[in-house]
Amino acid sequence: MLAFEKCGGGQSPYYLDAHLCGDPWDRGFFYPPVLFAFFRWTRPLPLATSVVLWTEFQMVGWVGVFLVWVKTIARRREPGPRHEVVIFCILLALQYPFVFMLERGNTDIGSILLFSLAAVLFLRGRVAPAGAAAGLAAGFKFWPLMAVVVVTASIAWAGRRVGKWTWLRFGGAAFGAFVLTLLPFPRDARIYVFDIIPSFAKVITPDTEWSHSISTFVGDNYPVFGFILAALLMLSWAWAGARAIERDDAGTAFAGALATATYVARTSYDYNLVSVYPLLLLLFFRAQRTNRWALLVFGLFAIAGDRRLFAIKGAHILTPSLHLTLELAFLLMAALVVGRPDDNPASAAQPQPAD
Question: Of 23, 29, 83, 84, which has the fewest CB atoms closer than 10 Å, so is most exposed?
Fold first, then answer.
């Protein structure tokens, strides 16, 4: 990103030679134009200074994400030891996805902040502004668009609870906000929409890379099967999100959609797994309420577990494919738990046996 900013000179970043701009791996620019514009502040700064400032912004931004989900979105959290929540968030920040995110200067924080804002606004009954915030998240980086689709489907599924046309207000505002992120950059937006997105949608991450994308592990030979798996994952959370919205727990619907979108994307590396953190945080609160910890422990192992366990040379069982399978199994189990009728405040108030 920084290499393209300093190399641009008024040209479209999509047509710049990555190698000449200083990237030895010749990686082309395929991000939305608004993200390129967002980093213009780095042009006059030395690389080291830009890296320090962006790292600090990420850390402060994630403190904000945790605070928003703890204080505002997790509305069903019952009073309990505050230090347990703080310790859990600190431990999440010490795990590989978060540390790798800082090391690589990942830019997902902008979209996650905006999507968190969308959840807050929706909980407050401001449907159109919530949709606009979600659309801006997709405009900042493309992958949250799948989360917008899942949430919109959940709202439509829960139509009796939130109103027949609420999904259209949310989805329409999201689409409008997404389009607005493109309008200030007519030249680059045209290239991005008609050239970059279609070509990038065909990319399959090489097997040598560490990926958490469904399409990567399915491969080019079975595209329909990969599409079906991704669709089933999204459908499961659209259903679970609808059940959560009907219980006035829309935050869980947003968290599940955000986690799902990471796996539907064409590329998804270890640092992208931070998008699952809000769901893990809400499952932590659920475990505190119900004393059911098994799902959370499984999720922490699948999402934040040491990836080297699944990278042993010559291994026939502990493989990256098994790791992805465990992650998808966790997401599916979480959807089934969220959609269960007994996972509501009334039943949760009763003593429950451990999982």
Answer: 83
